Amino acid sequence: MIQIRMLSDSDIQALPRLLREAHLEYSDIKKPSNEFYVVEDQKNLCGLCAYELLENQKAKIDFIYIREQDRGFKLGDGLLRAVLNHLDHRGVKKVLIDSNLSTNGFYVAEGLEIVYTSPENSDLLTFVVELPQFFNSPCKGSRV
Which residues are 71's β-sheet partners? Predict the structure, then answer.
């Protein structure tokens, strides 16, 4: 059974393996303000999202990662929507997501818009999600 939930203390042991696959270290992602959501399947972590709450009803998603062998099953979509729903319930109105061209397609497919491209590095993009409008809009493939 697949679960998408907040990271628990018991997940900490499994985190290094998942982070190695994402080419990250725990010290790279653990900011004092970061919070985490995970995707778990059969007691195995297969996805992770790090986000932080900002001032003025804003939040920033630092990254979303799904293990390569688990991609293609809409787990990234589920993880993104679970985190956005969680943030919406916490009163967040705007979510920023920093990305790069390799993950651009995922966010564009989710219906997000690019609001900033770094002038120093055109590979770095920032997307914005306006909450709760995101959930009031039909899914991209829906017919109205």
Answer: none
Q: What is the pLDDT of residues 85-123, one digit of tens each?
A: 999 999 999 999 988 878 888 998 888 888 998 889 888
Closest CA to 115 of 133, 131, 101, 129: 129
DSSP β-bridge partners for residue 35:
51
Question: In this structure, which amino acid lies at residue 36?
Answer: F
Strands (E), the chain: 2-6, 34-41, 44-53, 58-66, 94-100, 113-117, 124-130
- Distance between CA 144 and CA 116 in Å, rounded? 30
Rg of the chain, C-alpha, whole Å: 15
Contacts of 104 (CB under 8 A, 6+ apart): 114, 125
Question: What is the per-residue burial (b if ≥16 Cβ within 10 Å, else e) of 65-97?
Answer: bbbeebeeeebbeebbbbbbebbbeeebeebbb
Hey, what domains does the chain have and what are their CATH numbers? 2-136 (3.40.630.30)
Place of tokens 């998603």: 61
